[in-house]
Amino acid sequence: MDIPLISIIVPVYNAEKTLGRCVNSISSQTFQDWELLLIDDGSTDRSGKLCDEYATKDQRIKVFHKKNGGVSSARNIGLDHAKGEWITFIDSDDEIPKNTFTDDCKYFKEDLIIGAFNSIINGEIQCSRLDTGVYNKQELHRLFSHNINAPIFKVVWGKFFRNQLCKELLFDTNMMVGEDTLFVMQYLTKIKSCRIIGDIIYTYNLPKNFITKYKLDVQKSIYCLDKIYSSYRTLGERSKVFERTIFFDYKLFCQVNIYKNVDLWYKNAKIREIYHQIKHSFTIKYRILYTLMSSQHISNLVNMIKNRRINSIIL
């Protein structure tokens, strides 16, 4: 079989209700020079069987079954087997519009292609896009400094990655939240040019449990924050909005544990190091509060009050 122009990686886990919509949106593309890698991540419903059925109908579809290990491990298998010049990722509960794939990729010389995307939230469609154009090495810094906090830079879908540049990259299987963002940040450090197109190339269906599904313990949250922050710093650009966002997000993901013992967050050496580097991104009010919470006497008082509340509820 000839090497396809585009490799599509779709991790699949218990997606029998949405997988058909996803695969059909790919199969119905007018452009045909692609391969689809369906990675069944130990599904316990009919997803794995459905994947096999799709493969029997189209030789461009390849299926890989594995023990459940999470979306990162599934995508890594896809990266290992992708043969296309370009790689794109699609989640099994999402879809792509018609004519997302074209032969334009044959002629694009850039290292990364980013398109516009639609988000479906409570039945309403919202479109997100960046300013179109070609950004070469000198202009990448402007692109990053103005847009690094944009949603499209926090996900792996809605893009075309050069397979050759992905060879040394893997998704971090220890990242419980933010594995997409980390992969994108690491890839951005490798590119010399980027093309932003205005065409809508992805439809994202916001899950109903989006807010509640991200819960981490403090150590895992700190690990994720540190990995993303370190990768972000290698870009050589500073974004106060991005720094505030990731710091507050990962603090929120483990807020339940922090509530039980504030020292777990405020006394952690890595958090102190990151906070010291980005503290000017925060308001003066927050910096005062953070300093107070970092005080041993204040944290002991807060812990004592919260423990009394918990004990009173138990009693």
Describe the structure using short key phrases.
315 residues, Spore Coat Polysaccharide Biosynthesis Protein SpsA, Chain A, 2 domains, nine-stranded mixed beta sheet, 43% helix
Structure description:
Helix content is 43%, strand content 19%. The protein contains 13 helices and 9 strands. Strands 1, 2, 3, 4, 5, 6, 7, 8 and 9 form a 9-stranded mixed β-sheet that branches. The longest helix has 19 residues, at 296-314. The protein is globular, with a radius of gyration of 22 Å.
State the gist of this model.
The chain has 315 residues and is of the alpha/beta class. It is 43% helix and 19% strand.
What is the structural class?
alpha/beta
CATH architecture of the largest domain: Alpha-Beta Complex
What is the fourth-level CATH superfamily of the largest domain? Spore Coat Polysaccharide Biosynthesis Protein SpsA, Chain A
Tell me the number of helical segments per DSSP (H or I, 4 or more residues long).
13
Q: List the uncertain runs.
A: 310-315
CATH class term of the largest domain: Alpha Beta
End-to-end C-alpha gap: 70 Å
From the alpha carbons, calculate the radius of gyration and give it in angstroms: 22 Å
Helix content: 40-55%
Overall pLDDT, averaged?
91
How many domains make up the coordinates? 2
**Order of helical and strand elements:** EHEHEHEEEEHEHHEHHHHHHH
| Coarse morphology | globular
Topology-level CATH name of the largest domain: Spore Coat Polysaccharide Biosynthesis Protein SpsA, Chain A
Number of strands: 9
Strand content: 15-25%
The profile of the biggest β sheet is: 9 strands, mixed
